Structures
1.
Amino acid sequence: MPVPILKQGDMLIASMQSNLEDRDLMQLRDEIAEKVGRFKSRGVILDVSILDVLDSFATRTLRTIAETAKLRGAETVIVGIQPDVAVAMVQLGLTLDGIATALDFEEGMELLVATIEGGRLDGS
Amino acid sequence: MVAEETRVPIDRDGDIIAARQKARELAAQVGFSGSDLTMIATAISEVARNIVVYANRGEIVLSAAQQGSRRGVLVIARDEGPGIPDIERAMRDGFSTGKSLGLGLPGARRLMDEFEIESEVGKGTTITMRKWTR
């Protein structure tokens, strides 16, 4: 099932739906890259709270999405990694080093706004 | 006692999701909970993906395991793919032939209690994993 991407102001919000197949993640990556340009988005929130497994493939793809968005000028925050999922990821050896994460949607949005505004101050 | 087996054919990436859902159900019946269920599902995701990526098709066989008073799950991932020429290298973190992070097999081993791999070039690979309740 494809992941819907919502536009809210200068943010894009993608909430993962149930269990993602590989092609859904690939499609999400391509659509985010395209929509960041079309809507001149500054931030992307990837909500993974519904996912009960984040394996090495999913983790790598989330990283790719964040890095692709970054190259297109948008910051990404991954929100909602469940506690059991976090434990399993660490045990497996997976990290999201260099990728912003937040506990939930609200905190992710705060972090994103702070990052974008901080970036604007630095940049201008 | 013959343990009941659940066989999940692995032909495409969607089957990986089916395999981990079946494993979660079985592990919950055996008595696992919380992060153990997620670890088992994640380990299965890794070995099932290995089948899809390297062998195209294979199967995951799930059953309950018992050893004395210990209860657990037995997972067998089997394929008739190209086999792994250098198992030691494949079990090393960060080793990959380019299609993954190279964390799959060593990661799956860390998530489970027991992990054995048998592979013959040209014949296929069988991975046997067990996890015990605490």
2.
Amino acid sequence: MAQRAVAIAPRWPGAAAAALVLVLTIGTLAAVGWRAEWQRGLSPADWAAIRFTVTQALVSAGLSVLLAIPVARALARRQFRGRAALITLMGAPFLLPVVVAVIGLLAVFGRAGVVNSALVWLGLPAISIFGFHGVVLAHVFFNLPLAIRLILQGWLVIPAERFRLAASLNAPVGRLLEWPMLRAVVPGVFLVIFLICLTSFAVALTLGGGPRATTVELAIYQALRFDFDLGRAALLACVQFGLCVLAAAVVWRLSLVDTMGAGLDRTVQRWDLRWPMLDYLMIALVAAFLFTPLAMVVWRGVPGLALLPAEVWAAAGRSVIVAAASALLCTCMALALALRGGRMVAITGVLPLAASGLVVGTGAFLLVYPFINPARLALPVTVLVNATLALPFALRAIGQTVEGIDRDFGRLGASLGLSRWGWVRIVVLPRIRRPLGFGAGLAAALSMGDLGVIALFAGEAQQTLPLAMYRLMGAYRMEAAAGAALMLLALSLAAFWICDRGGRGNADL
Amino acid sequence: MLICEALVIEQDDFRLTADLAFGAGKITALIGPSGAGKSTLLAALAGFLAPASGRVMWQDMDLTAVPPGARPISAIFQDNNLFPHLTIAQNVGLGLRPTWHLTADERACVERALSSVGLAGLGGRKPAALSGGQQSRAALARVLLADRPVVLLDEPFAALGPGLKDEMLDLVQSTLGVAGRTVLMVTHDPDDARRIADQASLVAAGTVSAPVATQAFFEAPSPALSAYLG
């Protein structure tokens, strides 16, 4: 109602955080744009990379959504034991390091994997997981659960009364209720996944490659690491940025759907249910598709743990430090921005969503290499970039709570004469512990599993666990890689769990 | 005296003028229809709302530009008077000093304030473990402890049942009234004013009328007051 006569929270940390985000997004972009050799134009190979990037993202997003619709419908209308656990687990791929999932997928669909063994036993030709379909498979593996959760949410916001009304009118539920909901929800989900698939470097790095399966980001990486062709890397980074901005602009217009998925634990009573077995079959197939690779990571990883070379342990130590630092920085930035509030901050908070780690990394590389060997900055830059890329998620976790605290208690705080820091320390921090812990956990897990910027910068001596694991895979030491994958999986989940628990511990509000 | 000097408060197309003084050490009831601007006036006095023109004075001190926490004014709002994550003692202690850690002396002061509002021994609880009436008492204890001469009550007891509300009003009189605080109390129930207010003032039709002794206020109501009382 009334405008605030006083601003309670300190303002400069928010400005500092916004400045850092701007430097890392717009600043690196400027570096990239400045170094790009525009007159050179795009080679046929570059065009092939652009085509491949867009095609695989379209197919991945399309398949994810198409498969998700029947599964979401089955979950929306069936009640069974373990349903809640299944839906919760479908949130897990967000925390799952890409390289770990790739190891799991290789164990199932790879050359010596479960599927190929079965095919050979049946006398059928083996399939290959590398190339276009491998990239699509991995993207569907990652994004199908997200699509299911988002579409399930769409199903569950249809009021129960509507189903009752439709039943009493004997009206077709599908055409009357479900089709309009899908038409509203599905385009947004498709675009979000399309955007994710445009920027997923690690999948293309591990499963793509070669002239026919190179994404733009992979081409940037190769131009920078193998050819040291900075002009071309910068040019490709501009292309990648253009792709991301186009997609992000469309997503933004459609307003992002909430990915955290509250209130998915109910089913709506329905009167039009036939074919229960078909629903359960869909659910079982999806569960098998999602959880077999994870089970294989554990199964193959345990014996691999004994084979880990010493440098992998050192890499794991580095990963833990990077994850902790990036989670700390990310939460501080999110808190500073949330306390400051306002439009400018809302924009800086979503800017990283349109940024690709590789573009930011290329820009950072161009900025630092004239002055210092980039490898020496590998870990600090990784911390900065990871914290920035995780910022939108952390900000979304705490933003509304901070606004609510301001609305409910701002006057009380002001009339008590709390100082700016006193307000943060006595009122805000204790009240946002839960979402802050959740946001920190998210940032820590994302950073722990990140294989992007680090691949651009690090040499042997700076490698993190995902990079060490990727190098083991490249050297065909698959048992050791499986061991590293298990360790990485455990570390990511532990990082999330510790932060999230820390936020919950005796927080009675 | 708390003085509104040619005070004009504007919010969108709402406009309230006040040019009057509230006697020091008196309990004044602000009566008027909802939406007339009673809470808005309190917000301006407390410093949450910058007036469009005019001044707010306490004795001969100009408060207009003073931030809320530095005014000689305490407030109890309709809700959210206690931080739910702090204990009652910590909440009350905030009236003394904005920090969590109090000295032994200060803790003893908190305990005395709690017992003066009938909450002895409950300082260790969180607000959620108290009834609505007890929460109001805790807020009152904080105001007592804050020791600022002016207290603004923005219908803090509106959510309580009638018996409990009367009990709280009596407690306001026996604590704040006896301590000589200048109390401004928003209400739309004439009985609240009759119960404890020394004087009453009508907020209606965009103006705040000068306070009149409560008995006279109701015995010879102005036309606007008659319209409101029905």
